Amino acid sequence: RLTKIPAACTVRAFPLSAVLPQLTGSHLKRMRPSLYGTSIPYLSWFRCVSPSCSRIRTAICGCASTVKKLLLQAEKEMSFAVRNVKTNIMYTNQEKRKRGTKTMIENRNVNIITDADGKKLALINDIRFKGKRQIDWDDVKQYLEGYVGDYYEIEESAERIYIGNELPEEYTESESRKSLMGANAKAKANAATAIPELIQIASNPAYEENRKEKHNKNAKFGWYRYDVRFALPVYEENVLVRYNIFHARLLINHAENGKKYLYDILAVKKETSKP
Q1: The three-state (H, E, C) secondary structure of the chain, written as one string
Q2: How many CA atoms lie within 13 A of 69 on its CB side?
Q3: Contact, 270 vs 187, CB < 8 A?
Q4: 13 Cβ contact partners less than 8 Å away, ≥ 6 residues apart
Q5: pTM to 2 decimals?
Q6: What does the pLDDT read at residue 145?
Q7: Residues 6+ apart with CB under 8 A from 232
Q8: Most buried residue, 153, 255, 256, 260, by most Cβ within 10 Å?
């Protein structure tokens, strides 16, 4: 970059190209004051025949200014290149995580069954989130991001329910989620692995108008709540002993683009009357 300074820019009889190779390392650091308009420490070093000559001083200042501009430009380009590398690495890692999550979603072990009362439920055969004391909700959030952009149909009405960008954060960070404890919190975390099946078996829709200004766009045409049920396995010494059944409600927003989106799963609660 520095070798591209015009050859016409000279210090007395010495072309700037003869000086530039030495403007590195400690020399460049010592040159800094002159680059910012203060005294020039290298008048004698440049072998100027008349150090007090204002014309020569002006010539050297002009050269220093040129060097400064090129150095600043090079610094900007380097910073931009570093940012691009970091961004590309970040996107690459995100894509790898997303591909890994997609693979997990495709390999889910979830079935839809009908119980003795003729009601459907999603049978989750594998426990994905097993936190002994607390659930790692960041893992749940990352898992849910694998659904974004997909859609699934409610079997009863053939309505399409889309998975938008809001679901992962709302599902894992909402106040209703933070209020869940113990088995119910674990149940909501693992219900994330059965999103397609829960949408498919959703029933008993209840409509409600949007009353919050912040949802004027994403819920312009209101909210819907659907009943769903799912079952989680219970193991004792690695032996399956029973399934716990949970009831919950899907919260769906009807956006201004006419599409319906899964916004959250609420009111997760174990059915105490059944094992």
Answers
A1: CHHHCCCCCEECCEEHHHHHHHCCHHHHHHHHHHHCCCCCCCCCCCCCCCCCCHHHHHHHHHHHHHHHHHHHHHHHHHHHHHHHHHHHHHHHHHHHHHHHHHHHHHCCCEEEEECCCCCEEEEECCCCCCCCCCCCHHHHHHHHHCCCCCEEECCCCCCEEECCCHHHHHHHHCHHHHCCCHHHHHHHHHHHHHHHHHHHHCEEEEEECCCCHHHCCCCCCCEEEEEEEEEEEEEECCEEEEEEEEEEEEEEEECCCCCEEEEEEEEEEECCCCC
A2: 7
A3: yes
A4: none
A5: 0.63
A6: 95
A7: 124, 127, 186, 187, 190, 243, 244, 246
A8: 260
Q: Tell me what pLDDT residue 238 has.
A: 84
What was the pLDDT predicted at 82? 57
Which amino acid type is present at position 146?
A: G
pLDDT digits (tens, 9 = 90+) for 82-133: 566 555 544 454 454 455 566 667 778 999 999 988 999 999 998 989 876 7
Residues in the chain: 275
pLDDT in the model for residue 259: 96
Q: How many other CB atoms are there within 10 angstroms of residue 58's CB atom?
A: 10
CA-based nearest residue to 35, from 83, 6, 69: 69
Longest dimension (CA), the chain: 105
Residues of the chain where predicted confidence (pLDDT) is lower than 50:
1-51, 53-62, 89-91, 93-94, 96-97
